[in-house]
User: Fold ComEC/Rec2 family competence protein from Nocardioides lentus.
Amino acid sequence: MAAATDVRPDEAHDEERDPPEPPDLRMPVLALGAWAGGLLGLTCPPVGLALVLGAVVVAGAALGTAWGRRGAPPGALRAAAGCVLVLVAVAVVAAVRVALVAGDPVAALAEDGSAVSGLGTVTSDPRLEQGSFSDYVLVRVRVTELSARGRDLSVSAPVLVLADPSWASVRLGSQVRLAGRLEAAEGDDLAGLLTARGDPVEVTAPGPLWRGADAVRASIRDAVEHRPPAQRGLVPALVVGDDSRLPADLEEDFRTTGLTHLLAVSGTNLTLLVGALLVVARWAGVRGRWLQLVGAVGIVGFVLLARTEPSVVRAAAMGAVALLAMGGNGVRRGSRALGVAVTVLLLVHPWFARSPGFALSVLATAGIIVLAPVWRDAMARRLPRWLAEAIAVPAAAQLACTPVVAALSGQVSLVAVAANLLAAPAVGPATVLGLAAGVVGLLADPVAGAVGTLAGWCVAWIVLVSRRGAAVPTPAVDWGTTPLALGVLTVLCVVLALAAPYVLRSGAGFLLVLTASVVVVVVPLPTPGWPARDWVLTACDVGQGDALVLRAGPSAGVVVDSGPEPAAVDRCLDRLGVDRVPLLLLTHFHADHAGGLEGVLSGREVGAVEVTALAEPADSAAAVARSAARAGVPVRVPAYGETRTVGAVTLQVLGPLPGAPATTSGAPPSDGEGSAANDASLVVLAEVGGVSVLLTGDVEPPAQEELARSVPGLRVDVLKVPHHGSRHQDLDLLLSLDASLALVSVGEDNTYGHPSAEVLGPLEDAGVEVGRTDTDGDLLVVGGGGAPALVTAD
Assistant:
């Protein structure tokens, strides 16, 4: 296709004389009314809702009368009347749906904490989660028969089931017998939370459509089973949103680079798969209404494959809108279709009105429909049209979603547009090949494996883009989530959206935008005042895990634990300016302490790795050994009582005591949440810059009591609270340390209940200043000769 510089003058003139038709805003306005109605219906009590809706109707009638007298166009009056009507309709539907759920007999039983038994149909795939004491499964079930308090009830109530891992095998669409205790559930779309007893009993198998969909999903996984972990996890996620096998560090890289939408079912998935199906149908000679029928069948098949959950239905609707917008007069058709889709979805499922995923999906689709064509035409003066479109689509979608993404994450990605642009060429082939592998796998496994290899090669490029994007000096900048901060960001996005066409049409403006984009991504942004000049210790915000850095000298640090994944600890060390790690201590081998090892090793000079003697879990210990061997870094176990100086840091090993088990066999049990591995954590007393620090790993009460007996009278300035502030602590020991600062390394909204108020309360009552990474971000301890002070990143 010719570049813009090859276009004939008369063609350029015609293009300017006949600009793209503007979007039809009537249906989007109705959609906004529907959205407002959904929010009102979900949040207002019945009496308040009636008053608000009455006021809206009266105000609408008064404004309509006034506009009519002033000669307002009939179309505008009809649009205003329709907006009021749709607002009232969705608000009433939402209120009725909420009332039906709340008034269901199941909800009443849940309020009383009743023991029940009954039958239900599984409406979601089971999801295995990690809990404080053991793994558990969450699965949605629509209960149809219930027995409680001597009564048999016929109901139709959505319930969230919390069960043991044996429920991970239940199949979507099957009817199961269940028993347990009902409790009130969070969210007004659920009648209750059922804590199930015992194993599931399948009464009726899923129907043939569900079984067929399950077979294809399993075939997709099997087709890429021979590929590396990142590839075999990413292909099912791209095709049908199955992210169950996705490595945690890759998921974090996708978040950093703005590629997370690829991991969930989205309109893009449907557009690619149904679009490929339509191409094949055209090639086979299908035309006219039969082609529309093929498209409809493709949409239904996609929904079955990706599951009929609300998020999938939403994605299917947005994908159908995108398909419509790809045809002639796409902006007007797409804007109308988007308005209709939003209105219908809110009528069917009012809870979308306050779903962040719904907002992101609608905004991305709107950006692609409204902004992308204008930006594409502006850039087509300097670039080939296909390249201009490849840049415009992800840029428009990203800009439209930026305020909502910032509200959710507190960050604005600087690499998202570039990452999406680079990944885009591989997304379509990977998605189509992944589905093809799954379908072929039902007939011929060897052929499916070959097609799966091709899909794996495609996603390997996407993995590379996410890894490299997350590793740039400034992949994202922190942004506040206050109304003022988000309001400023929204205004900036609107200004950029309006100014972009004018800037991109200009050769100088285009060059300026290109240069600025490269500079922002490649050149690290300054962070005034961070780290503080006299810092001695940092607890890095790495989520649910530990990663601490003791300042050993200029650009050097002793690292204690590496957190759960590489990217987070790597970024923290970059922020601190640490490029030499003379010593890395891994207190024990649990993933939340050792999983980020590669992030410490990457691009840094590491002198040695020291570990605990108890190689548990064995697979994690083996992974540490392999990573260290590849980097050429020796691994050793320090002796109890060993003392040495590393740069400006003095370290003494206080635990585990001699005689602790060195292998997993015969390891004694441990009280509380953990295991022998927790109590075998390296416990280290450190001194740096005149500040003494007790680094405790995840030791629990048995090991804490041994520490108190072996080192009586121990006093320190700073305490790293054991096990992320778990409630299982020897408070007598913690309070006896007389620390002025306590650091809690913990993940936000973790499922373990960390940190516990039973631990933080006594520490604070004793005058200890407590810093938490989940609320404060990186925690910096500053020395300087006086009492240590705490400086936070947030």
In short: Confidence is low (pLDDT under 50) at residues 1-18, 662-674. Residues 35 and 211 are 36 Å apart (CA to CA). The chain is about 50% helix and 15% strand. The radius of gyration is 29 Å.
